[in-house]
């Protein structure tokens, strides 16, 4: 939790005047935000605001982009996604990307280790006991919550330190959303830095240190989670809820 009495932690990710395009369509119009090391930061905003596109641009998955993205002081805006991954950034996409024909263990064995420090299978199973129980089940047989856990577990295998989680609670029952919340808090305690795209503001407020509000491809506001009580009406109007 940021404390105004102490200096802010150093920024791990700095996005500056980021523009991105799909063909002729100009989608990000100068995104600016900073992610301090060790924080959980959310990108909040309505459908189509540009949150997923921002994650994909950070990951190097969009070729048509301009502006600056610095990770740990290194400019990454011109790098392809495999090089971005090797610096220690991983994306868990909204569609989860589980290999349906492979079982849990095989899905966990697939990701390449890009940096030392990735979780071993044993460590993954300690963190996700449910995945141990389900280790021989095929991807298609998993519940939505189990799939989401597997998708997050997979990126923890890589050794990444900055985790980009795109709508991890989407379509999940409240009890599973709570489990994802507990997981996010555990990952923060373990020292990961997390950027979370969320439409579920209630969930976001239970895990995040700060929130950036995205509208029409720009960040239009930033709020510390500790101040969120006073900003509730403003947020409701931003999100149309
Ligand atoms: N592959 C694509 N080709 C063309 N336009 C796209 C593509 N993906 C997204 N867009 C457009 O870019 C804009 C931003 O989309 P983006 O998915 O980043 O928004 P979002 O804030 O993540 O919303 P959502 O929650 O709906 O995913 C939208 O207008 C969307 O229609």
TrEMBL record:
Tagged with keyword Iron: no
Keyword tags: Amino-acid transport, ATP-binding, Nucleotide-binding, Transport
Keyword Chloroplast on entry: no
Pfam families: ABC_tran (PF00005)
Domain ABC transporter: 13-241
GO biological process, one term: L-amino acid transport
Classification via InterPro entries: AAA+_ATPase, ABC_transporter-like_ATP-bd, ABC_transporter-like_CS, BCAA_Transport_ATP-bd_LivF, P-loop_NTPase
CDD domains in UniProt: ABC_TM1139_LivF_branched (cd03224)
Recorded superkingdom: Bacteria
GO molecular function, one term: ATP binding
Sequence similarity: Belongs to the ABC transporter superfamily.
Entry protein name: Branched-chain amino acid transport ATP-binding protein LivF
């Amino acid at each position: 939790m940021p404390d105004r009495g102490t200096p802010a932690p150093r920024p791990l990710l700095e996005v500056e005047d980021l523009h991105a395009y799909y063909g002729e369509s100009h989608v990000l119009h100068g995104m600016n935000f900073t992610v301090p090391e060790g924080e959980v930061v959310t990108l909040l905003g309505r459908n189509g605001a540009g949150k997923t596109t921002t994650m994909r641009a950070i990951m190097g998955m969009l070729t048509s982009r301009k502006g600056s993205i610095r990770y740990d002081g290194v400019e990454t805006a011109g790098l392809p996604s495999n090089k971005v991954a090797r610096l220690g950034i991983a994306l868990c996409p909204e569609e989860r990307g589980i290999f349906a024909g492979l079982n849990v263990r095989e899905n966990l064995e697939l990701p390449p280790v890009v940096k030392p420090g990735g979780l071993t299978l044993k460590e993954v199973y300690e963190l996700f006991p449910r995945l141990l129980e389900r280790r021989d089940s095929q991807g298609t047989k998993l519940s939505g919550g189990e799939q989401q856990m597997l998708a997050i577990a997979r990126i923890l295998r890589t050794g990444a330190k900055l985790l980009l989680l795109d709508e991890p609670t989407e379509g999940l029952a409240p009890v599973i959303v709570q489990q994802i919340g507990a997981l996010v808090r555990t990952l923060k305690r373990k020292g990961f830095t997390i950027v979370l795209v969320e439409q579920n503001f209630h969930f976001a407020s239970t895990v995040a240190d700060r929130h950036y509000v995205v509208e029409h491809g720009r960040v239009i506001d930033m709020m510390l989670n500790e101040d969120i009580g006073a900003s509730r009406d403003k947020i409701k109007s931003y999100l149309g809820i």
